[in-house]
Amino acid sequence: MMTDKLRILLIIAVLCYFGVILKLLKDKALSLKYTLLWLFSGVVLGLMVLFPGALAYIIHRFGIYSEMNGLIFLCIGFLIIICIALTSIVTRQNKKIRVLIQEVAIMEKRLREVENEKE
Amino acid sequence: MSKVLLIIPAYNEEESLWSLIEEIKTVCPYVDYLVVNDCSSDDTDRLLSELGANYITLPCNMGIGGAVQSGYRYAAQNEYDIAIQIDGDGQHDVRFVKDMVKLIEDKQADVVIGSRFIDKEGFQSSQARRIGIRILSMLIRLMCGAKVKDVTSGFRAVNRRFIELFAENYPDDYPEPEVIVTAKLYGAVIKELPVVMRERTTGKSSINLKRSIYYMIKVSLAIIICRISLGFRR
Predict the structure, then answer these.
(1) C-alpha A108, offset from chain centre
(2) Where residue B206 falls among pLDDT bands split at 50, 70, 90?
(3) B interface mutation test: which of A98, A107, A112 has the most B CBs within 10 A?
């Protein structure tokens, strides 16, 4: 069972969460592309807190009998997905940086040669 | 006559580079060379500039894989037929370059690896390292059927096709064993050429004892993953 006290606390927490993300989005400190997953998980968590009946129904089907455990389970699941997504983003950026470094170095050599020819 | 490029990755090798470049100029004047200075913290950059050497300096340190790949990228852009990578520390003897080029020009091989374990001459490395190399060699043979004894050798030559492949696709760190699997799965004929290696006189190997466990795990995994991801190519 989720007490009303806890529900109110969780609703406030989810609202703060959205507040922070939207503020960062507005300040362009986060790009929407990488924030979609965060927003999505926030929406799911918000729905779960607003409709504890639905939460209870779903998690009972997975054999979890306490709403709080179910919520924590969900949160951890989202965190893991987000971490994997981040690692993948880092890897892709790494590849791009690598090409950039190599191209810059080769260009620098050509520039050096052109300058030497001029002199 | 093929256009040949020697790729020399160098990180803090100012003591050995000078003699290596001199050696290249006297022993094989018909090849071009490119030193890839991997953002050395010593005076490598100034030395290369004073020598009037053919070099590029990477703006950030990228490790051996990224440095060698820069060389392949350069070779691809400047239309070289054959690229030969050779360590900047003077371990490898440029006298063997001629034989490597010949093997590729005669179409006997796409990839030639300079191996110190065939004639067992010259510097043979420590017992522990030889065991590690043998394990990796067996693993590579199991994964793709390539029979290579000296899988960690950084002295190797490739033809135009693999220059283009490596310019786009080259592992980051400890790349040597993994590249053999990539090449084999892309259908390369790989030949080993007996060479004599010297014990490095300056600098220190990028693989010290502390890192060897990490090295074995990382390289073994990389070989297996490489095999899986390229698995359908054969």
Answers:
(1) 37
(2) low
(3) A98
Residue B202: the pLDDT is 58
Contact B73, B164 (CB under 8 A): no
User: Is some CB atom of chain B closer than 8 A to the CB atom of A23?
Assistant: no
Any residues with CB less than 8 A from the CB of B100 and at least 6 apart, and which?
A: B84, B112, B114, B156, B157, B193
Indicate the number of domains in chain B.
1
DSSP per residue, B106-123:
TTS-SEEEEESSSS--B-
Over residues B28-70, the pLDDT tens digits come to 999 999 999 999 999 899 999 998 899 999 999 998 999 999 9
Note whether B113 and B148 are within 8 A (CB).
yes
Residue A74's pLDDT is what?
85
Determine contact: A113 vs chain B, CB below 8 A.
no
**In this complex, do A101 and B69 lie within 8 Å of one another by their Cβ atoms?**
no
Instruction: Please state the domain extents for chain A.
Output: 4-88
B172 contacts in A (CB within 8 Å)?
Answer: 98
DSSP state of B232: G
Query: What CATH number is associated with residue B27?
Result: 3.90.550.10
Residue B54 lies in domain: 4-233
Average pLDDT of adjacent 10-residue blocks, chain A of 119 residues: 83 92 86 84 87 84 84 88 91 92 93 89
B48 at interface of A, judged by CB pairs closer than 8 A: no
B5 within 8 A of B34, measured Cβ to Cβ? yes
**Looking at chain B, which residue has its C-alpha nearest residue A95?**
B172
Q: pLDDT tens digits, residue range B6-18?
A: 999 999 988 889 9
Interface test with B, best of A94, A99, A100, A106 (most B CBs within 10 A): A106
